[in-house]
Amino acid sequence: MSKIAESTIRRLSLYLRLLEEFEIAGEDTVSSEALAAKSGATSAQVRKDLSLFGSFGKRGLGYPVRDLSARIRQILGLQRHHSVILVGAGLLGTALVRNRGFTERGFDVVGAYDSSPTRIGRRVNGLVVKSDDDIDTDLASTPVDIAIITTPGEVAQGIVDRLVKLGVRAILNFTATKLVVPDSVAVKDVNMAIELEALSFAIGHQT
Amino acid sequence: MSKIAESTIRRLSLYLRLLEEFEIAGEDTVSSEALAAKSGATSAQVRKDLSLFGSFGKRGLGYPVRDLSARIRQILGLQRHHSVILVGAGLLGTALVRNRGFTERGFDVVGAYDSSPTRIGRRVNGLVVKSDDDIDTDLASTPVDIAIITTPGEVAQGIVDRLVKLGVRAILNFTATKLVVPDSVAVKDVNMAIELEALSFAIGHQT
DNA sequence: CTATGTGAATGATTTCACAGCT
DNA sequence: AGCTGTGAAATCATTCACATAG
Known about the structure:
Largest sheet of chain A: 6 strands, parallel
Order of helices and strands of chain A: HEHHEHEHEEEEHEHEEH
Helix content of chain A: 40-55%
Number of helices of chain A: 8
Oligomer: homodimer
Radius of gyration of chain A: 20 Å
Structural class of chain A: alpha/beta
Strand content of chain A: 15-25%
Number of strands of chain A: 10
């Protein structure tokens, strides 16, 4: 189980959501063809993605919905919960963290931090926003897995350096800054500007 | 200028932001090496990306910062402004649209819509939130380029079908639903759940 | 007969390495 | 001498097509 492509992982996450829908719809088994149709992939792609981790299907029948989603959850590491902190409790950050589904999917938001006195002390989703300065002592006593960064870009790298020292293992970066971290820390960027500019390019090249 | 990879476009968008920083820093020229360092790409990658659109550099010197950013802006179609509407004026949608930078980069938010009476009539960033029902008449008289969808997933496809009929050319989809649109419409998905689950996988596979 | 699992083939993207300007 | 521009090579990802299992 050596080298798994990022794109495969992202599709697994998608399949998982579709499997949950199939399960709710009362389906017991599902074919690669059916998963493909709903996910935008091809059936060969679905089968290859899944076969990288074992063979879960029954030939002539398809994949058992329940078992397969359990297995994907396991592959993605979703049986265990993950602790998450929010750094930057502005509009975007609080909107993100307020989302239902979040906790439902095993991502537990255990802290929210901001540097602005006007935001410190506010309640977000049952949490009191604390000062950035509290991060060090808080995480020193209770390490967290994931940090969501929605600060201004200029301060992001400084904060991330501290988080890395404090043992944070993954970062979801909503700033436009490219973060520098050691290989042992995973980073995913979500960048509105890039998405919009990619759409702009697409518009200019449409028939 | 036939087949340009999506990944190339996303990097161009990144380079553009870096070039703007170099310009502010007063640099006249920049090497592919310098762009590579700040963008996380390799210098060969930077040169290949740029060479797909022409040759802008001077051998032995590098790329002229001003000219190159102008050219990238042109490639991405950013000389023209794009009109944008927001559909779904909840916390996330309003947070997104409130962002500075947005208008700065030529994406003009010209309308915000929601189905909930509690949100209709509110002001967001100088715009009054209107009813979803107004979309048809509004866009029939004034077409828009891009729609940002932050509605609940269940209603997204229905709205998108209407938007497509009304001539919307690109969609930025924040719901977890996979949207079905004709080839003539571009869609980019931004999906928190996928990002978090990809991070979860990465955490499980770290040294 | 149906749908999986998978090598082999194809296609796409990235990296190499160097000739050619300035 | 320094750095671009680019074919050629290497790597990575997707699709094909079919043998195999239920």
